[in-house]
Amino acid sequence: MEGLYVHQADGFRHFRPYLDDDVEFYLVGDPEVVPFAGRYKGFDQVQELYRKFFSQIEAPPGHDYRPHYKFISQGNDVIVWGQSWMHPIGRPMTEPMELTHLMRFRRGKLYYFEDRYDTSLAAKLLNEPTDDSSDAESR
Questions:
Q1: Close Cβ partners of 108 (under 8 Å, ≥ 6 residues apart)
Q2: Burial class (CB within 10 angstroms; exposed 0-12, middle 13-18, buried 19+) of 74
Q3: Measured distance CA(87)–CA(102) in Å, rounded
Q4: Which end of the chain is more exposed for a tag (fewer CB within 10 A), N or C?
Q5: For residues 59 and 4, is the Cβ–Cβ distance under 8 A?
Q6: Where are the alpha helices (H) located in the chain, listed in sequence order?
Q7: pLDDT digits over 93-124, tens only?
Q8: What does the alpha-carbon distance between residue 48 and residue 139 come to, in Å, rounded to a whole number?
Q9: How many CB atoms are closer than 10 A to CB 134?
């Protein structure tokens, strides 16, 4: 979570040493409406996911993410659930989005990450017109 909120687009560089060689990230959703949804396998694809995600999404400045998440671990699995305040760039949300992450580790490295969230809300937030685009349409 720190990688997402604190390091944001630079997060991949910070957690890269903790990824298994066969790492896979899966973000639910239809890539036609949520451009970063899909499966990403290997370092290069996960890095591309980070590029896609942070080309559209940002964390609120100075936001303390820690009180909004809970963690439970069992064996080599960790489940994270809580409320995300990450939002489309320049368009903060008025309500958080519920999400759940499943992380699986082996030999001390992350090999599987799954992100489940409200895909219809994500699509709406990502595809709603910005104030700039609605001004342009009205001219």
A1: 18
A2: exposed
A3: 21
A4: C
A5: yes
A6: 2, 11-15, 42-54, 119-127, 131-138
A7: 999 999 999 999 999 999 999 999 999 999 99
A8: 36
A9: 10
Instruction: State the pLDDT at residue 10.
Output: 84
In angstroms, the CA 37 to CA 2 distance is 21
Which H helix or E strand runs over 84? strand 77-84
**Alpha carbon distance 28, 37 (integer Å):** 6
- Give the CA dihedral 107, 100, 35, 122, nearest 10 degrees: -170
Count Cβ neighbours within 10 Å for each residue of 1-38 and write b for 16 or more, e otherwise.
eebbbebeeebbeeeeeebbeebbbbbbbeeeebbbbb
Q: d(Cα 135, Cα 137) in Å, to the nearest integer?
A: 5
Of the chain, the end-to-end C-alpha distance in Å amounts to 42
Full-model pTM:
0.86
